[in-house]
Design a protein that fits this description.
One of its GO terms (molecular function) is hydrolase activity. The chain has 169 residues and is of the alpha/beta class. It has 6 helices and 7 strands; from the N terminus they run ααβββαββαβααβ. The strands form 2 sheets. A 5-stranded mixed β-sheet has the order 3-1-5-4-7, with helices on both faces. The chain has a two-stranded antiparallel ribbon with strand order 2-6. The termini are far apart.
Length: 169
């Protein structure tokens, strides 16, 4: 489908001023999944590479959509090919320190039954472990912007309306 869509677009447009495309800013794009258990608690990973909790997902690779990145990363991190549902939040994150600004997409990862939870195989290179927690329980171990983003994701689940946010607001 994607190849056909690209072919239907025709030849890429030419640059009016040579080299301008290479000078345009680049953004980091990430896709994560809000995955819950039957009690309504969210699945959090304990990453090996940072001190705060995170949801399953990760950075999109070159020419990969945020949704595709989410599907790929969830399978890599959890050892399961889960059906990832609709978009809940798009959140712009400002540049900070060495990191460029980013767009963080959060998708509905669904509700896992106990048998599926038992089949989780956490990638130990990426995470020390995992926990199902409410936002109140996870809050002290999350960056404030992530806590705000996930609260918006829970609101989107409840209302059925995706949220556009700036740094979790």
């Amino acid at each position: 489908m994607r190849r056909g869509d690209l072919l239907a677009e025709g030849e890429p447009e030419r640059e009016f001023h040579a080299g301008i495309a290479a000078r345009l800013p680049r953004k980091t794009v990430a896709g994560g999944a809000l995955i819950r258990d039957r009690a309504g608690r969210n699945l959090f990973l304990e990453p090996t590479y940072k001190p705060t909790l995170d949801i399953p997902g990760g950075i999109a690779e070159y020419d990969e959509s945020p949704y595709q990145a989410c599907v790929r990363e969830v399978e890599e991190e959890l050892g399961l090919a889960l059906e990832i549902g609709p978009l809940l939040v798009v959140d712009w994150v400002p540049a900070q320190g060495p990191w460029s600004d980013a767009l963080a997409f959060v998708f509905d990862g669904g509700v896992l039954d106990p048998a599926t939870i038992d089949r989780l195989r956490i990638d130990r290179v990426e995470a020390h472990g995992h926990e199902f927690l409410t936002l109140a329980e996870a809050g002290p171990r999350l960056r404030p912007s992530m806590l705000r983003r996930l609260a918006l994701a829970e609101r989107a689940l409840a209302t059925g309306t995706p949220v556009n946010a700036d740094f979790g607001r």
